[in-house]
C-alpha cells in the first residue's frame, strides 16, 4: 500500500492556477522569488527553496502574497519531513487568507495542503474533513480539474484508512471529472492513475495496474524528463507491477532504475526514497532473495523511524503508515 502514501506531493492544477494568478498581482521581486522557489521545489532542491521562502515569510508582510509564500513553504517542509514546521506554515497561511477579502481559493489551497499533512501523519478523519471543505470551494467555482484532484485526495484518505469502497468511488469520480475538464494537468492525471493502479493491484489485476502506472510514468517523463523524482517513482511502481505479474527480473531492473533516479534527484532523506526502498525490498523477495529483501525492509524501517524522529515532528509518526 506504499503508492497511496507517496504519490500526492505534486502541486495540483487548481492550486497552480490560483497560485500563479496571485503571484502576478504582487511585486516583481516577490513574483520572481516565489516562481524560483516553486521551480527549486520541483527539482528537489529543497534546501534552496526553503531559504528563499523563509526570507520571504520573514518580511513581516500580512497580505495574500505572504499567505502564498507560507503555503509553499509548508509544502516544502512537508516534502523533507519537517511536519511540525509544515503545520505551523499552513496554519499561518490560513490565518493570513482569512484576513484578506477575495482569497477563498487561496485559503482552499492552504487547507488542501494541511489535509495532505494530516494524511501523512495518519490522521485520516481530519484530512477528510479539510478536503471536503476544499471540495465545496472548487465545486462552487465549477473547476472540474480542481474537483478531480480533490476527489483524488479524498481517495488517498479513504485508501489509507483501508476503506476500499470509498476509495474506489472517489477514484471513479476523479476520472469522471477529468473528462469534463477542458484540460487536466499531466501531474494531476498521473496522480489519479497511481490510485487507480493501486486499486487494480488490490483486485489482483496486475496487468491493468501496470497499464495505469505506465500511463503515469509516461506523463511524468513528458512533463519532467527522465531524470526527475516523479519519473523515478513511476519506474518503481511499474517495477512492482511487473514483479507481481511474475516478471521479477524486469520488475527488479525498473525498481533499481527508479530508486537510483530518486536518490540522485532528491536524495535519501525524503519520504519518497524510503517508500521506494520498501518496494525494492518487496521485489527482491519476489525475485528469489527473501533473506536480502527482509533485511533491507528491516533496515529501511529503522532508517525511516530515525528520519522522522530527527525531524522533530510535533506529531507521533508511525512507520506503519509507510507499509
Care to describe what's here?
The protein is mostly helical. It has a domain at 210-323. It has 16 helices and no strands. α9 (144-160) runs parallel beside α11 (186-202). The chain starts with a helix and ends in a 13-residue tail after the last helix.
Layout of secondary structure:
Layout: H1 3-6, H2 13-24, H3 28-42, H4 46-57, H5 64-79, H6 83-98, H7 104-120, H8 124-141, H9 144-160, H10 164-180, H11 186-202, H12 206-224, H13 229-244, H14 248-266, H15 271-286, H16 290-310
Helix pairs in contact: 3-4, 3-5, 4-5, 5-6, 5-7, 6-7, 7-8, 8-9, 9-10, 9-11, 10-11, 11-12, 12-13, 13-14, 13-15, 14-15, 15-16
Low-pLDDT regions: 1-26, 311-323
Q: What is the overall number of helices?
A: 16
Question: How many strand elements?
Answer: 0
What is the residue-mean pLDDT, rounded to a whole number? 85
Strand content: under 5%
* Main sheet attributes: strand count, strand direction, barrel closure: none
Helix-strand sequence: HHHHHHHHHHHHHHHH
Give the fraction of residues assigned to helices: over 70%
Rounded Rg: 19 Å
Overall body shape = globular
From the N-terminal CA to the C-terminal CA, the straight-line distance is: 6 Å
Instruction: Tell me the structural class.
Output: mainly alpha
Observed structural traits:
0% strand; 78% helix; disordered N terminus; 323 residues; mainly alpha; disordered C terminus
Amino acid at each position: 500500500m506504499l503508492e497511496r502514501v507517496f504519490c500526492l506531493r505534486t502541486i495540483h492544477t487548481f492550486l497552480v492556477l490560483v497560485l500563479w494568478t496571485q503571484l502576478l498581482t504582487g511585486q516583481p521581486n516577490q513574483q520572481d522569488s516565489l516562481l524560483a522557489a516553486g521551480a527549486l521545489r520541483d527539482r528537489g532542491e529543497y534546501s534552496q527553496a526553503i531559504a528563499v521562502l523563509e526570507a520571504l515569510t520573514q518580511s513581516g508582510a500580512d497580505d495574500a502574497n505572504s499567505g502564498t509564500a507560507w503555503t509553499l513553504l509548508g509544502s516544502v517542509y512537508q516534502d523533507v519531513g519537517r511536519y511540525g514546521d509544515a503545520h505551523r506554515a499552513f496554519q499561518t497561511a490560513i490565518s493570513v487568507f482569512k484576513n484578506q477579502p477575495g482569497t477563498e481559493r487561496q485559503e482552499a489551497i492552504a487547507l488542501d495542503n494541511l489535509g495532505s499533512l494530516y494524511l501523512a501523519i495518519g490522521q485520516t478523519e481530519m484530512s477528510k474533513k479539510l478536503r471536503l471543505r476544499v471540495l465545496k470551494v472548487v465545486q462552487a467555482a465549477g473547476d472540474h480539474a480542481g474537483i478531480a484532484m480533490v476527489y483524488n485526495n479524498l481517495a488517498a484518505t479513504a485508501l489509507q484508512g483501508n476503506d476500499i469502497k470509498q476509495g474506489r468511488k472517489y477514484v471513479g469520480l476523479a476520472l469522471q471529472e477529468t473528462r469534463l475538464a477542458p484540460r487536466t494537468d499531466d501531474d494531476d492525471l498521473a496522480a489519479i492513475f497511481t490510485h487507480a493502479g493501486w486499486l487494480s493491484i488490490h483486485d489482483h489485476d496486475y496487468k491493468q495496474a501496470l497499464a495505469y502506472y505506465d500511463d503515469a510514468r509516461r506523463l511524468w517523463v513528458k512533463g519532467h524528463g527522465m531524470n526527475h523524482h516523479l519519473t523515478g517513482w513511476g519506474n518503481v511502481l511499474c517495477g512492482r507491477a511487473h514483479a507481481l505479474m511474475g516478471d521479477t527480473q524486469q520488475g527488479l531492473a525498473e525498481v533499481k532504475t527508479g530508486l537510483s533516479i530518486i536518490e540522485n534527484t532528491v536524495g535519501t532523506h525524503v519520504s519518497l526514497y524510503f517508500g521506494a526502498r520498501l518496494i525494492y525490498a518487496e521485489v527482491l523477495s519476489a525475485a528469489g532473495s527473501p533473506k536480502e529483501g527482509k533485511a533491507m525492509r528491516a533496515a529501511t524501517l529503522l532508517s525511516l523511524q530515525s528520519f522522522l524522529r530527527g525531524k522533530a515532528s510535533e506529531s507521533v509518526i508511525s512507520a506503519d503508515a509507510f507499509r
